[in-house]
Amino acid sequence: MTKEMKYPLPAYNTRREQLIMPEYGRTIQDMVNVALQIEDREERNRCASYIVSVMARMQNENASRPDFQHRLWNHLAKMSHYKLDVDYPVDIVPEEQALAHPAPLPYPMKRIQRKHYGYLVEQMLDFITKEEDAQTRMDMTTVVANQMRQDLYSWNRDSLDEDLILQDILRYTRGKGRLPQAFRFAPIVQPEVQYASGKNRKKK
Fold first, then answer.
1. Residue extents of the structural domains in the chain
2. In this structure, is the dihedral angle defined by the CA atoms of residues 75, 77, 82 and 84, taken in order, positive or negative?
3. 3-state DSSP call for residue 50?
4. Buried-exposed string 114-142: b where 16+ CB fall within 10 A, e elsewhere
């Protein structure tokens, strides 16, 4: 049989109240909680000033920032759930504004017919169909054709098919994207190998 424990084990942090600002630690949060219980306003003000001074020492690397003190006092207000009634030396951001979540940014959903070419290539091909000058269309088609070959190679080199690229150009441009008779695809540009560390590079 096991002996009964006389003293309870200390609670794990996962069982404690979640910290509002973990970067200050639980001790600062406990000090804020104590300040909330102080009834005398003058003493509560002194306690708040002391807490901010300790927070400043913990964030010493940011002391050169012009808004340093302003941030600390706002952090104090936040850790007290905006219930600490003291004479704040700076303007405190209202709770509704501080806790408000920014509106989600709209994600541009573009319909792409051939994902291996990408949206920009398709836009360039569409622009070719609207170009009136025949020579300009041919010059642009030459550039786009080489880019399409490079994109297809990067996507899956085993599926590289130059005849398919030429067919796609005609289909995208509705027959307006013509290439010169002597056109030849440019060589594939091989991506450079990037080393994670300078130790792997050979010294010259």
1. 15-98, 108-190
2. positive
3. helix
4. beebbeebbebbeebeebeeeeebbebbb
pLDDT, mean of residues 92-98:
88
Is the pLDDT reported for residue 196 higher than 60? no
For position 58, what pLDDT does the model report?
93
Which tokens in the block code for residue 17?
């109240």
What per-residue confidence (pLDDT) applies to 46? 96
* Spatial contact of 147 and 185, defined as CB atoms under 8 Å apart: no
Asked whether the whole model's pTM tops 0.70, one would answer no
Q: Cα 36 to the chain's mean position, in Å?
A: 36
How many Cα atoms sit within 13 Å of 68 on the Cβ side? 14
CA dihedral of 83, 87, 89, 95, whole degrees rounded to 10? 20
- Asked if 85 and 42 count as a contact pair (C-beta separation under 8 A), the reply is no
Residue 148's nearest CA partner among 170, 130, 129 is 170
Contact assessment for residue 113 and residue 152, using Cβ atoms and an 8 Å cutoff: no
How far apart are the C-alpha atoms of 150 and 148, rounded to whole Å? 5
Query: What burial class does residue 145 get, using C-beta atoms within 10 Å of its C-beta: 0-12 exposed, 13-18 middle, 19+ buried?
Result: buried
CA of 76: how far to CAs of 36, 49, 129, in Å? 11, 10, 61
Cβ count within 10 A of residue 33: 13
